[in-house]
Structure formats: structure tokens, C-alpha cells
Amino acid sequence: MPPVHTSSLEELTAVLERTENVLLDFDGPVADLFPSGSGTKIADETRTPILRAGVVIPEPLASTVEHLVVLEFAAEHAPEALESAEQAAVAGEIASARTAPVTPGAGDFLSACAAAGRRVGIISNNAAPAIEGFLELHGLRDQVEFILGRPFARPRLMKPDPTLAFEALRALRSRPDQCCMVGDAVTDIEFARHAGVRSVGYAKNAERGRQLAAAGADAITPTMSDLAAAVRLLGRG
Fold first, then answer.
1. Domain range for residue 53?
2. What is the pLDDT of residues 152-211, one digit of tens each?
3. Which of 76, 101, 111, 181 has the most CB atoms in a 10 Å sphere around its CB?
4. Is 1 a member of any domain?
């Protein structure tokens, strides 16, 4: 299978030069929240309240490491356990954020945006307290204008639902065409499309790049450093 085409510096700048503000995903572009399959523990802890409520969790949800999918299951099939499951998920994300590494180039990208006067807001399906703690720990908080995390016990409002995008646009006092979403998941690209904002897919491998391109990303970057370079190039222009 041939490698996916990633966007050149000129193609990245062509997307960014049409926008002023950045909507930035967290897990992926900023942090590696669950490296090496470490999401198993939080998924188990998120399942526990559901099982205690006597609700049978079918496969593949009974063994998935994706705790956000478990939350969505709870909202639909075990609403009486949803708040407890959410509390377990938040606690697990906060714990993971304490040891998660910064994505290479993420700090450079945030610095480049700050120097260029681009306002950055983080929009994530992870919990805001985990994101806040991570940014404070690594000295990045002052380069992010606001954080919009997963609404507590309302997983239906996670991306790709555009609700948080509209909240971000209000916070920025910005039009959709003035913003660019940067994310590593298909849901980020769908989220951007639903909200009417441009998007750059962050793809660490060819398969993810193909998925993001198929979802409609306006550009694909293999590294956050490349995106920082594009911001700096525009800043010099």
C-alpha cells in the first residue's frame, strides 16, 4: 500500500493563511495520554460502575481499551451508572495526564502561535481538569486561551458533535472561516466540517493519514513541528 501524501509546507501555510485562530485537539497533537496501550486500566474502571448496576456489557465493549466508547454505552444503556462511570473516567484521565509525555513539536507549535498572535483554544473529548493539569505541569497553560473538555456525563456532546465548536467560536468572537481545527482523529475532521471550520489532520502514520484525508482534512501534517514551521513562515510574511 503506497504511503499517504502529506502536505508540503506551502500547502500547510495555504490552509493556515486563511484563518486566524486555532482549535486544537489534546490527546495526540499535544499529549500522548495513553501510550503503549495504557488505556486498559481506565477502561476497566469506567466499566466497573456499569457492571455493578447489573448491566451486561457486550463484546467488543467488554474488553475495549477505549473508555470513551464505554461512556457512550453507559449513556444509552446504563444511565443510572453514567455519573459514576464519568467520575472514574475523569479520575483516570487526570492520573494519566500526570505522566503523559508532550507530543514532539507541540510546545513549538504553541510558541509559534503565540508569537504570531494566533489564539489557541483546546477542544477535547477528554476532561478539562486532566488537560489543565497537563498544561500547567509542562508550562504550556499561558499559551492556551481556553479549554473545552468533555461535558460531564454528557458523552453525546463529544466530537464530532459541533456543540463545543460553537461555544469556542463564541469565546473567540470569531467566525467559522477564521478558525482551523488541528486533530489526529476522524472525529476531529468531521467536527470541523460540521462546524464549518477548516482542518489540518495530524497523522503519525500512513494509515491514519489516509483516514484523515478520506474524512476531508484540508491538509495533513506528520509532525507538529511542520505545523509550527508553517505558522512561523506566515508570521514572517
1. 35-97
2. 999 999 999 999 999 999 999 999 999 999 999 999 999 999 999 999 999 999 999 999
3. 181
4. no
